[in-house]
Amino acid sequence: MNTVRKTSISSTQKGQAAENAALIYLEQQGLRLVERNFSTRLGEIDLIMWQQQTLVFIEVRQRSNPHFGGAVASISLAKQDKLWNTAQLYLQRFSTLPACRFDLLAINGLEMEWIKNFISR
């Protein structure tokens, strides 16, 4: 008797696949990868990339369906604070601070939306 095994993809694997897709998309838009999954005690930044002379901190969010606002709505103020504080730690390695911004790459199902400057302070 042949049995069909269901294979499930972990949330970590789904997150890595979303980050891979986001990275490919952003590189096609001309951005250059600096660091991936920069992690500190304060939080993690998915992608750090250069777009010309601007250092871009990128959060990648994926949702399989748009219920409850989808990927964009999943970024709470607390998460934004963590990203901001983590970026401040990253920037300590620069003697002269570059221009910076925070972008969101939201993936809802098969649709990808790139939102520039989603955190402003």
Summarize the structure.
This protein is of the alpha+beta class. It has helices at residues 11-28, 70-73, 77-91, and strands at 32-40, 43-51, 54-63, 99-108, 111-119. It has a single domain (11-119), classed as Trna Endonuclease, Chain: A, domain 1.
Structural features, described:
With 121 residues, this protein is an alpha+beta fold. It has one domain (11-119): 3-Layer(aba) Sandwich (Trna Endonuclease, Chain: A, domain 1), CATH 3.40.1350.10. It has helices at 11-28, 70-73, 77-91, and strands at residues 32-40, 43-51, 54-63, 99-108, 111-119. A five-stranded mixed β-sheet has the order 1-2-3-4-5, with helices on both faces. The longest helix is centred in the N-terminal third of the chain and has 18 residues, at 11-28. The chain is globular and about 45 Å long. The termini are far apart.
Write the layout of secondary structure elements.
Blueprint: H1 11-28, E1 32-40, E2 43-51, E3 54-63, H2 70-73, H3 77-91, E4 99-108, E5 111-119
Parallel strand pairs: 3-4
Antiparallel strand pairs: 1-2, 2-3, 4-5
